[in-house]
């Protein structure tokens, strides 16, 4: 299986704070990689670096063998191939659900309106949101907003989908409707990197689980290995705390 | 959703009591407001009317017959103010948007223009409008450049546009800066260029946010067009001035003031309502 993404020895600091420290990771095609770790361990920063929203201080990132950490690269072209979904949804409040989804296909991929609308409506229908097409985001529940945000990314047929704690802003009842989309995408063979606190969900979809601590991956393996039989004391400590909080 | 089950509801006796109490409170408040208003207004009016100079003031400022006579010339002047406001307002909008975009762009090719835009805003926001009008109105014709009209209406408009563009540019820029960076991040992560992000995501939200303060500036603009009268433009202020200095009766000033108020008061009310609707839409904090 070819690697969609390869990260080698990247380093990132904000001012004096080292956020990513010599981190390496490979994402094979059609796999889901789940990043776990405490807040501030570098999960979000890693995703933002992959999406070139942050520039790295050292190391290299390759997308399908092409180095995207090269400063001469056209970042807009790279981002077209990468979908990103945020914790706070970040839908465009002045645009309807349909317009949120069709904006990038029309302006970035140059599709005409009919094409973009047809594709968007098909996606909305698939994820049970067809009746919300003309609504504005503030009229939707958090779970619906996040599902629209996922669809907005999917509309560009991304090579790799980055999901940054997409259920952290939702109440427990709404979490499941969002996670079921991710399960669907996983069975479609979408390549994904997820940062999450939902350990149960991680067990279901992860091909590989990585435990981040202080900007590096301390332990990695299958969900079974890392979540249920962790070797590193720090992983054990983290999972114990998660367990106490009732999240596993 | 408010119709849900509402038909089957009739208020409890406690709720009826509460409603009665609320009505009593609001009746008492209305009474206090009425008494207090009568007292204050009555005092002010009686002080004015019983003042020793009232007879003269009444004749020179509130001469109804003379007011009616000068009305056509003042309203003809007001037409100039309105034209200036709308034509100027359009130019201001275009220039201010350009300035705001220049000041918020990071594109290296536009660096010199960014400096110019910043200097422009500093200068025209900092200098009194009346000075700019005098400098443009008398300075530009003195240059003797060919092709630039020396028409005072044109030059007065240019001066007002120069100054207001600086104000409005800052309002628009503050709107742009008020859009949360996560919106930009979402747009860029979809592959939109920074220009597309500005045009389709940031600017539409920013403009919506600054409509109320812009309406405010629009009202000020209408009033400030009266300042071009110092160049000799026969606007409402100037027309009133000509009539007043001919007869030493100042009623034309009052007529001009009332005409301005007839336009600006509805505009400010509308602005206030727009601001209130915006705040209501954005916060769901309940009744405070």
What does this 3D model show about the protein?
The complex is a heterodimer of chains A (248) and B (288). By secondary structure, chain A is α/β, with parallel strands linked by helices. Chain A has one domain: 3-Layer(aba) Sandwich (Rossmann fold), CATH 3.40.50. Helix content of chain A is 38%, strand content 25%. In chain A, the strands form 2 sheets. Chain A has a 6-stranded mixed sheet, sandwiched between helices. Chain A has a 4-stranded antiparallel sheet with strand order 2-1-4-5, covered by helices on one side. In chain A, β4 (58-63) and β5 form a beta hairpin. In chain A, α3 crosses α4 and α5 packs parallel to α6. The two termini of chain A are 31 Å apart. Chain B is mostly helical. Chain B has a domain at 78-229: MetI-like fold (Orthogonal Bundle), CATH 1.10.3720. Chain B contains 10 helices and no strands. In chain B, α3 runs antiparallel to α4 (111-126). The two termini of chain B are 24 Å apart. Residues 282-288 of chain B have low confidence and may be disordered. The interface between A and B is medium-sized, with 24 and 17 residues.
Main attributes of the structure:
heterodimer, A: 248 residues, alpha/beta, Rossmann fold, six-stranded mixed sheet, four-stranded antiparallel sheet, 9 helices, B: 288 residues, mainly alpha, MetI-like fold, 10 helices, 80% helix, flat, disordered C terminus
């Amino acid at each position: 299986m070819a690697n969609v993404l390869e990260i080698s020895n990247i380093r990132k600091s904000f001012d004096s704070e080292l956020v990513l420290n010599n981190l390496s990771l490979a994402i094979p095609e059609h796999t889901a990689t789940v990043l776990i770790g405490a807040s501030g361990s570098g999960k979000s920063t890693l995703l933002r670096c992959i999406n070139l929203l942050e520039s790295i201080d050292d190391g290299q990132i390759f997308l399908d063998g092409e180095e995207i950490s090269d400063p001469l690269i056209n970042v807009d072209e790279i981002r077209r191939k990468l979908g990103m979904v945020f914790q706070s949804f970040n839908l465009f409040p002045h645009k309807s659900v349909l317009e949120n989804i069709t904006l990038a296909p029309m302006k970035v991929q140059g599709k005409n309106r009919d094409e973009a609308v047809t594709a968007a409506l098909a996606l909305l229908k698939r994820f049970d949101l067809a009746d919300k097409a003309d609504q504005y985001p503030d009229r939707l529940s958090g779970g619906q907003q996040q599902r629209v945000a996922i669809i907005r990314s999917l509309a560009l047929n991304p090579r790799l989908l980055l999901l940054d704690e997409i259920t952290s802003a939702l109440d427990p009842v709404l979490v499941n409707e969002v996670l079921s989309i991710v399960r669907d995408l996983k069975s479609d063979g979408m390549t994904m990197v997820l940062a999450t606190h939902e350990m149960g969900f991680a067990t279901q979809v992860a091909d590989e689980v990585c435990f981040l601590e202080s900007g590096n991956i301390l332990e990695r393996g299958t969900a079974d290995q890392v979540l249920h039989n962790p070797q590193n004391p720090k992983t054990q400590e983290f999972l114990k705390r998660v367990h106490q909080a009732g999240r596993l | 959703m408010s119709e849900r089950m509402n038909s089957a509801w009739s208020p409890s006796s406690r709720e009826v009591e509460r409603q009665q109490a609320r009505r009593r409170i609001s009746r008492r408040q209305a009474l206090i407001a009425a008494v207090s208003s009568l007292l204050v207004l009555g005092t002010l009016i009686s002080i004015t009317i019983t003042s020793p100079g009232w007879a003269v003031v009444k004749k020179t400022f509130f001469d109804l017959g003379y007011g009616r006579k000068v009305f056509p010339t003042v309203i003809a002047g007001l037409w100039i103010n309105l034209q200036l406001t709308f034509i100027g307002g359009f130019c201001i909008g275009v220039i201010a948007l350009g300035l705001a975009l220049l000041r918020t762009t990071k594109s290296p090719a536009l660096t010199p223009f960014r400096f110019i835009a910043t200097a422009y805003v500093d200068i025209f926001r900092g200098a009194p409008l009346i000075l700019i009008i005098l400098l443009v109105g008398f300075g530009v014709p003195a240059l003797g450049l060919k092709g630039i009209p020396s028409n005072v209406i044109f030059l007065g408009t240019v001066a007002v546009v120069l100054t207001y563009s600086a104000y409005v540019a800052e309002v628009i820029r503050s709107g742009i800066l008020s859009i949360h960076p996560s919106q930009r991040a979402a747009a860029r992560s979809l592959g939109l260029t920074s220009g597309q992000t500005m045009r389709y995501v940031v600017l539409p939200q920013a403009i919506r946010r600054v409509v109320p303060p812009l309406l405010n500036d629009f009202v000020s603009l209408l009033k400030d067009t009266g300042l071009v009268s110092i160049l000799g433009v026969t606007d409402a202020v100037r027309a009133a001035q000509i009539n007043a200095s001919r007869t030493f009766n100042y009623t034309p000033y009052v007529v001009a003031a009332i005409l301005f108020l007839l336009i600006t008061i509805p505009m400010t009310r509308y602005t206030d309502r727009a601001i209130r609707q915006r705040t209501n839409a954005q916060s769901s904090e309940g009744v405070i």
